[in-house]
Design goal:
2 strands; 114 residues; two-stranded antiparallel ribbon; extended; 53% helix
């Protein structure tokens, strides 16, 4: 039986020293690249959402994006805006797609295609 190796936990000062040491080995170009990456991630904060989608839907969105030379995020965002507009304008009723569930304390329905 293999012995399980537990991750090492450092206190704050040791962790800071290790980060400083690691940064000292980075080239100036690498530091700029990482700073830009961190800035991009920070700018996305509050603008990202994660949804559980069927793999077929993901592939269809990706294929549509490639065919239109844009990103999957742009295609999905447009599709969601169109869905919300149709629902708001009374062109879409979700009632026919509702399936009652009893095993969730939080939700009463799943939405399924007929």
């Amino acid at each position: 039986m293999k012995k399980r190796i537990e991750p090492v936990k450092f206190d704050g000062e040791v962790k800071d020293a290790l980060i400083f040491l690691e940064d000292s080995f980075r080239s100036p170009k690498e530091k700029v690249r990482l700073a830009k990456k961190k800035e991009r991630q920070a700018s996305r904060k509050g603008r990202r959402a994660f949804y559980d989608l069927d793999p077929e839907v993901i592939v269809d969105i990706q294929e549509l994006a490639v065919a239109n030379q844009t990103t999957a995020s742009q295609v999905a965002g447009l599709a969601l805006r169109m869905l919300l507009a149709a629902q708001r304008d009374g062109e879409l009723d979700l009632a026919p797609y509702k399936v009652r569930i009893d095993h969730s304390p939080r939700y009463r329905y799943l939405l399924r295609e007929n």
